[in-house]
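I am writing to request your help with a piece of structural work I have in hand. Here, with my thanks, is the record as I have it:
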Amino acid sequence: MAKDMKVARGEAVGVVAAQSIGEPGTQMVLRSFHSAGIASVITTTGLPRIIEIVDARKKPKFPMMEIRLDKSTSKSYEKAKEVWKRIEEVKVSGVIDGFEENLKSGTMALHLSKEKTAQHGITGRTIASRLSKLEGVSADQDGDEIRVKVKDKDTKSIRTRFVKVLNSVIAGVPGIQKVVMQTNDNNEFYLTTSGSNIEGVLSVDGIEKDEVYSNDIFEVLRVYGIEAARNLIANELQKTINEEGITVGFRHLGLVADAMTHTGVIKSVGRHGIAGEKESVFARAAYEETVKHFTNASVFGETDMLKGVAENILIGKQIGVGTGRVHLAIKKEELKKIKRKD
């Protein structure tokens, strides 16, 4: 039924959408949510996630991905685990038992853990080779140790370089801190990650490249384009609201997503985005920074045509929506007939 329902001409769809999302939004619980069965992959939900989306934050607080595996991999635990190992990032700090640093000589000794290197399938030679590619760093393997030498002279630069060495990614996809394997209703394996890197994941063999999902809106925009970002905004809003046990019509959420993306870039709903770029001076002033908008409008001689809802309410004029959009006219002859009857 819902898909056949149409909006009447003159309906204030923006106001209806705002009410449909805003009122249930007051019922939302402020909480951090652990997805069922994923104790280590945390994602933002509830009101904080709604705010994150409509404010068009450049980076989500908890970026995450869902990665589907191809048919030859999804049924096999061993194959799925291999893909998992190729995706989860491994840092130098994650494969050592300890380290010693000499700030005076600019050298560092990394004590490799046999257990950790074997677990990730990494050799000392591979680690030394990756570290040698870093700017201003040379590294050599010496038994169970990696000896690192930096070319910087002052102590502060040497210390900074040492920190970079310890945080260097030597395997996996950069930005994917944690990967958790799960099964769906068809007993097929898929991966959920903490962290997002679409381009890096797409280069990994064994995944279904058409079914890579990320909650990072700006990364989706960069990789897939504005239409994909628009769909993600609408879907993430619906998903977040549904998780709270609230139902909001998808068309209201789709309208918000359309308003945020129709120019080809993602704009926030607030004063730095849609609300701050309205054509009407009164509408902009009614939202935030009232004095600033009136001052600028007077300096630059702006004209307000009073076509929207907010500006007409502000000055007490009839709103041009619903019945206010209809103008009645009557011929003088017909008016005279009515008067005669009276």
